[in-house]
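User:
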Amino acid sequence: MDIKTIKTMEQVTLDNAVGGYGRVVIAFLFIALVFLYSTMSNSGLENNTFLIIGAVFGAYMAMNIGANDVANNVGPAVGSKAMTMFWAIVIAAIFEAAGALIAGGEVVKTIKKGIIDPAMIENPEIFIWAMTAALLSAALWLNFATYIGAPVSTTHSIVGGVMGAGIAAAGFSIVDWGTMGKIAASWIISPILGGVIAASFLYLIKSQIVFKKDMINSAKKIVPILVAIMAMAFSTYLMLKGIKKIVKIDFTTALMIGSAFAIGIYFIVKPMIEKAAKNIEKTRAGVNTLFTVPLIISAAMLSFAHGANDVANAIGPLAAINDAIVHGGMSGKSEIPLWVMGVGAIGIAVGLALYGPKLIKTVGSEITELDQMRAFSIAMAASITVIIASQLGLPVSSTHIAVGGVFGVGFLREYLDRGESKFIAKVREQFKADKKELDIMQSEFKELEAIEEKTKKDYIKIVELYKLIDDKQELVKIEKKEFKTAKKIKYVKRDAVKKIIAAWIITVPAAAILSAGVFFMIKGIVS
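Assistant: Predicted structure:
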């Protein structure tokens, strides 16, 4: 299916007034429920108006994240047809919410107090105004950018919003430029790292499976190892984040436990892969099917990590507002309330279910053609990179990581296809030479058959030629088939690269300027 067809289908869907209004109604219903809950649960708090407003804005922001960013997690799986859109949404919603609730606290704290120094804003009300402005401006910018089809980062939006509001409230000195420098560096490092890891996984799969003479036996050896690596990464992450409230485990211990878990998974998965391999075609398409279940698992793993990492974009400022109102300023030690985490977790799931399918299709098919092997490589790279970033408490952009992975796979395909095109050129020349030789042999065969009084030598020559012609015809037939089925070079869309880079450059300053404007508007209204 080409891009034009996909866009036509999307337009037909968007033109369905009932469906469009239905989504809007459900979205407003969720926001209304958040409004009612925050109003009733915080009725005893003094000056709780901004907390209620922040909760509403946080819900709005969370839905935008679900509609936009989650496509990076499941888009490759849907684009490669490893799973349907329905199951992609179900799996992503469950694991996004779980990741946000179980392991999202650390990154929320980075957003809440790492970008600016709250101590420089002595008046708690001004701090509340700043966080409210940051949240609203980030949500508005993300909504606008999504509407016009710009691939922006939600992390960029909220970081720019917090920075802009902070500067408007207390000047440039309030910004922790060291933290901003690390975050900015991560925006460059994460897509490169994602691309390198994705390309490395795909090259491993191609070199150790696809390019092998016996692909099935090679797949039996390599696929269980890849699944074990995935299991190690995910289990290590859970040891460090998921059970930290029960027991604290250092990285080395977690890695050792994760490695032991990976070994167990390897021995469980290996016979399953061997059994599945008996019922598949001995082709690339057949081998692709072995990656379906691992790809689904890796999509779930990425959704969990994304929920843990990007929930901060929705509720980091809300958590800061809650601190300021409850404690009269930034306490720095209080736990993030469960209801605040719930707003982010449920909001992401709601936004995904309502508006996620459009961008899932775009990520899954617009940048480069994906099959299960390529999609698995992207998902693995994105998962590992996001997990590392979340473990460090660094609010990196999952959009950068996932898109970097997609481009990494695309550029590797481009490089390998260039090598393949040279091989195809050789096949073409060999095909022409063999066809010419076949024509000469057939002509000689006809001349010998035309001789009325043949000698024994002529008969021997005819038999030899008959065998040679038969062998040569088979060879030419194979070469002709290879020539006809040879793929053209697939290039990564250069326009997509330009759009991504432009969006990365524009979003932070745009969100910061908008946030500063919103802050001064709030200040003017309240003062």
